[in-house]
Each structure stands twice: as C-alpha cells, then as structure tokens.
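Memo to structure team: turn this sequence into structure tokens by end of day. - J.P.
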Amino acid sequence: MRFAIGQVNPTIGDLHGNCQLIEQAHRGAAENGAQLLVLPELAVCGYPPKDLLLRDGFIPRCEAAVERLAQLTLGKTAILVGHPSTGENGAHHNSASLLADGKVVDRVHKTLLPNYDVFDERRYFRPQRPERLRPIEFMGRKLGVHICEDAWWGQPETFYHIPEEKFIDPVRELARQGAEILINLSASPFEVDKAARRRNLIAAHVLQTGLPFVFVNQIGGHDDLVFDGHSFVMDSRGQVRHQSAGFRTDLDIVDLDQLPPVLDPRDPPREYQLLEALTLGLRDYMRRCGFTDCVLGLSGGIDSAVACYIAARAVGPENVHGILMPSRYSSQHSIDDAWALVKALGVDGQLVSIDDTHKSYEAMPVIGQDLASQPGGLADQNLQARIRGAIVMTRSNRRGWIALATGNKSELAVGYCTLYGDMCGGFAMLSDLYKRDVYALARYINSTVEKREVIPHSTIEKAPSAELAPNQFDQDTLPAYPILDGILEGLVDHEDSIEDLAKQFSIEQVRWVATRLDRNEFKRRQMAPGVKLSPRAFGFGRRMPMAMKLEY
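Reply from structure team:
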C-alpha cells in the first residue's frame, strides 16, 4: 500500500486556505500513485483552534469542508484527514475521516483528550467511547487510526481523570482488534529533543504490537506553539524507514510493502533545533498576523543581537528595522557593536539618542524631583527603558511594523525587565530561552550557521549590562547567570522544591530567586507571546497566581 504523508502547515480558522493546501497535497499524492493521503490532526481547521470551536457554526463549516474534500477522491487517491465534528446528542469530537470514492466512508474520534500543559481539549471535545474503538477498513486492510494523544497513554505527564479511560490504551486496543497498520494523525508541538521522544514512544508501541506505524505531524507556527513536523514511518521491528523534513512542509510517498532502507535518524544539535523553531515561529506569526516588517531596539547586547539575527533569517534583512537608542550611560563599545551587527546582517539601522528626552523628564517639576531624589535609581532606569519603548512603538504604529521584545527567560523570570519599556512589543522572541541558551545560540550562529562573525565577538564576551546607570552590570543585582539559570530550571521546568535545590545551590540564592519568580508573575501576564521551546514556558501552559504569599 502506497501512503502519501502530507506534512502541511494549516492556518487556524482558514478553512478555505487549508482545503487548498490539502487539495495541493492530494494532487501530488495522486500524481505519484499513492493510494491514501494521510494528513495531520485537525488539518481542516488548524491546531489548536481553541474557542473558535465554541463559535456558532464553526464546526458545521468544518464538516461541510470535509464533504467538499471528499469530492476530490472520486476515482483518485483516498484521504485520511483530521477535523472537528459533531456526533451523537450534539457532542463535539476531535475526529479523523476516511474519504474515498467521493464520500466520507468512515470516521473515528480521539479517545484520550489531553488537559495538561498547553492542552485544554476537554473544554471542547468529548472522548470516543472505549467500546467503539475499532480499526478502519481500507483496500482490504485494517487501519488502526488514532489521533495524537491516543499514542501517549501512560506517559508521566499525562493524566485524564476519567474512569473509563483509566485502563484503555488505544493503540493496544486497536492492535487487539486486528489492526494491521497503526496510523497516528498528530499535532504535536515542538520542544527541544521531542522528535527523539516521539520515536522512542512509537517504537515501544511497535515492539509491543509487532505492527508498522505511520506518524504524521503538523508543522508551522501557531501563536506561541511551533509544530516541527518530523513525520515518520516505522517498520514492524521498530526501525525508522522514512522521516519527513523538520520545520517545513513535505509530501512523501512511502510504500509499506516495499519500505526504503533503514534510517538512523539522529537529531541535530540543540542550538539548531532552537534556531529553526524560533525562525519558523516568528515567520508564521508575522505572516498570519499580516506583518511584513518588524522593528526592535538594538542595544549592542547579546539578546537584541540574537533577536535581530533571527528576525533577519525569518523575514529577510530588508524587512528588519533596528533602532539604536543610546543614553548618557551607554558605552561606545555597545554602540559600535550594534552598528557592526547592522552592517553584518544588512538590516536597516537608525540611531536615535534618548538623552534629550531623558533631560526633558528631569526638567519637569514633579517627575524631576522624584528622579533627583535618587539619581540612577530604579525609577530613572525604568524611565530610560520606557523612553526607548515609546520610540519603538511609535515607529511600529506609524509604519505598521510589528515591534519585537527581546527579553530572555532568565530576565522575565525574576522581573529584570520593565513594563511598557523593554517588554513593549507584539512578539517576545526569546521569552523561553534562558540567558545561557542565548549565548550558546550566538556562538552557534557564528561558528556553524554563518561561519563568520555576524554577532560581534565583543557582544558575546563582554559582561552583560543594561547600561541604565553608571558602571552597571547584571551581576551587581543578579546571581551569576549559570547559577540563576540552574535555579530557574529547577523551579520552573521541573517544579523542584526549595529544599532539593538547596542541595546544589546556596539556600539564600534559591530563596531570593524563588521570591523574585513568584513576585513577578504580574509582569509575565502582560508580556507579548513568544515561542514555546521547553516543557514549561511562561504562558498558557504555566498558570500561576499573581497575588500570593509563599514561605520559603
């Protein structure tokens, strides 16, 4: 049986555009002699559609789109496609339909509905009743069709809290009922090294059932999520025989009766994965929101340099506009580094000093008194950040460019950022990158991607500083970044206790970081969206109270 793996990039809500993508994939599948085109989870409406599913008429329009897609299959390649549907008693389901001979010939629903991290499917869907789990018959074969989470049963992070699901492993049940091929329609979001986790997961199913496995994943940036593709086919011995491209659309034809040679799919370096995910996430966010250009502040520091590089890579240097905004505290080497970056990347750069504006505030009767009472203090530092934020946002508003915020996860975690200042923007590119990862990415860009000094060497090597006060350095008020990031990884990514972290770091530092982390939740609620790269990014998947009091 010849399968076509349609690794498509749908836009959430764009039923017409998504059906055009599916039609294009179907045309390619038919031209290459495929008997069945397999597409990702909810490919008709894009994943995750969230509360669009609650909008009156949305799901019926999705079902009507599926009926129209079925017409493509008259005398041609069949289609297996994901979409939302309405079943018995008006219950909504996350479904997969087999389209053949011009009609919908069969339909199954997702059994396990994830409700952890960024997933909230029980808000919208009802699970398939376990007693209705069954293979789909196609061309004399029984296909064990299931949807994304159905293959993740029993993983440590999963929980469903529904008695009838407690002992149901959908994959094992489909195999028990005679499935000959297992097919998973997925929309599995990117995290670093997740492609390897998926392969290990599926290999365990294959070794348990002895059945070949087809895994088809969505790609694209969808708000804060990136889907990386990496669809694959595994033979009945758990060996990968095909893997689709990562981070781009792909259409591949695989004959399950004549599989390609065994592959050894080794994941690329961490920095490669981060760079590809950030590039795809920004590119698709801008495209889907209607932006062609972006604007950001360039300080000569590591964060704005890496953010600028990613922007140039995502949308082209001609569409990136950097503003250098030195103050009286800015060092000449930082200005020089920012100009060197502009030249190396070929982006648009402009220098706008904030000193006159800063002096105007100091001359104001009321605000000037506050600033004079503590020269170079917190209020004065935040004022400088807000002057810069106003300049960037003015340019954004006037030209219709999206403003990019450049703060990293370490700074956002402990509040080392300014509301309405450096947090201004429509997309926070580095919000799930710890400072150590920003440095690692900068070195990787120079040494491996570009093989030249794009990000200035002095930017990478100099001590980090916001340059908002005389002789200011980050480590005057923050723990050294290796320590800070280590503590934050424990607190945020692993939810470690203070006691456990105190075995690796000083208890005073752990308590200080934990207190700052909790105290600054209100800032993070107001930050722009950014690409989720880790299991615990700030945003929808991490829901903490703002007004709370914990004792450490």
